[in-house]
Amino acid sequence: MPQLPTRDSIKRFFLLTGLWVLLHVSAFTNDQGYSTLAVALWTLATTVSYTFLYLLPALIPGYLLHRLLLQRPATRVGVATLALLLIGLTGMIHVLLFADRVIYGMYGFHINGFVLDLVFTPGGIASLGASRSTELTASLVVIALLALQAATYFWATRRAAQSRPSRWTPRAGWVLLAILSFAVGERVAYGFSAAANYQPILFASERYPLYLPTTFRKLASRLGISGAPEGAGGVHIKNGVLSYPLLPLRVEPPARPLNIVWLAVESLRYDMLDRTIMPQLWDFSGNALRLGNHYSGGNTTQMGIFSMFYGLYGNYWFPMQAARRSPLLMDVLQQQNYQFSLHTSQSFTYPPFQETVFANMNPADMHALSDGPPPWQRDRQNIDDILRFIDTRDKTRPFMTYMFFEGTHANYTFPPESVIARPYLEDFNYLSADFAQQMVPIKNRYINAAHHVDHLIGRVITHLRERKLLDDTIIIVLGDHGEEFMERKRWGHAADFNRFQTSTPGVLWIPGQQARTISGISSHLDIPATLMPLLGVRNPPADYSLGQNLLAPDFHRDYAVAAGWNRIAYLGEKFKISFPVNAAGAVRDEVLDEDDHPVSDRERAKNEIQAAMVEMMNNLTRFSRPKG
What we know:
By secondary structure, the chain is an alpha/beta fold. It has helices at about 5-25, 35-70, 75-105, 115-120, 130-160, 170-195, 200-205, 215-220, 280-285, 300-310, 315-325, 330-335, 375-390, 435-465, 500, 525-535, 600-610, 610-620, and strands at about 240, 260-265, 290-295, 340-345, 365-370, 400-405, 475-480, 485, 490, 505-510, 515-525, 560-565, 565-570, 575-580, 590-595, 625. About 45% of the residues lie in helices and about 10% in strands.
């Protein structure tokens, strides 16, 4: 006769599980969380109360199902269902906390909208470029955490069945009262810390997943407590109806339209444009327009590619995607009867460029190689296909071809003949790699991958030269964003807005233009404003973008702007300042100096660029208007 676990055994299971979760949550803290007695007490209270909150998705359905099953005779199905539910839910809480801890350790942010979008959008997981060993390690971790919960469950229930009733079991009411006391205490402490700008607790709160800040500045002000200025938690934008462009375009198509070859390279940071690493692009840039201090419009592929086609801040991605609004640049090319061959070695579904940049493109013109061979081989195949398209195109019409290289995305892949940097890590396992000790061989993988991409770019340039097409073709080479290798304590991108993660090479070949280098700041946002006049658009750039024409004699930028999923950053010569946009949870402004180190006097730095910040605030809604 099957026997349903007693209520005491379920309590014991959740108490043990709570201890395991407490260990997980404690791992998020660091030494700063125990710097003083007050901060240590807050850390203890927060760790305990958030352990309970993280367990709620298992506690509530678990107790409800157990109570329901107690009202009817026990069956094997009921007993098994309860075990699977409790083991499965608590196991997945462990998995999510482990995954969040890995993400936070690598990138400095928790599971958020960006991560969820990556997981649930087709092609998102594949875009991570994880090796087989990484996938195997991740699978083993998941199995181990589920096994831990299975062992905990069977120990708790079997022990209860085989032993006499305990004289002492914790009463749920007392446990809840203790947790509530911890929760209220940490809420009050955080609220006054926010009001007084007491940074040790504010910074410590950022380490907890899904931390929800509580503020009561008005009450604190009445009590004479003052600190952080209003608005320190970022800005919130209500997306209105798109007003893009601001005025209808006036277009006089050129008599001799130029072809466009657009080459975007995943994670290609500024210092890869080097005569040793990328010799072919380096030599070519000496005869073209070289952008010596160039910034992407974002620290992710999504925002980087978006900004180079739209010339807008990354926050416009969301209303553009919702409206399926293509960039005006692509609209003009279609109106002028361009033929297209669009290629990627990843996919057009993640990020969903088929809903934004290429929203109105014929699917027959979009060629994605996202499966099968390693990225460097897919890059090579795509280049073969592009060169074939150039040779077989309709020569009576201009053409536009686009290529997104994936080889320089982690895991950083390349053929043996492209090895120029040794030693390199043979098997790059994201979960088992020692980033502090192995960063040099990891970066060498990246350098070798960039060297191979340079070879492929060289093939395109040579092909155009041999076909005598250079005088009729614009060539654009950009990175979508940069890539950091622990220069500022992070690996990869999407975490910060320092130069390593946001600055990319920029090379533009425009027929009839003299070779030169722009040493001042330039931005992805300037690309549409540079190309549209060449397509006969007579409107000033301000009608359709937030960029400037790189070919204008008076071109000058005081700063660039880059966006993340829910942050936007001012990137200037003296400071880099980022702040949250429509962000939830514990968030704050980040202020860096010209060398990407934290600034001590943050308010003074923000005051110095106040005019630029006002301009950025206005630009965030420049191309939208209130609904109604």
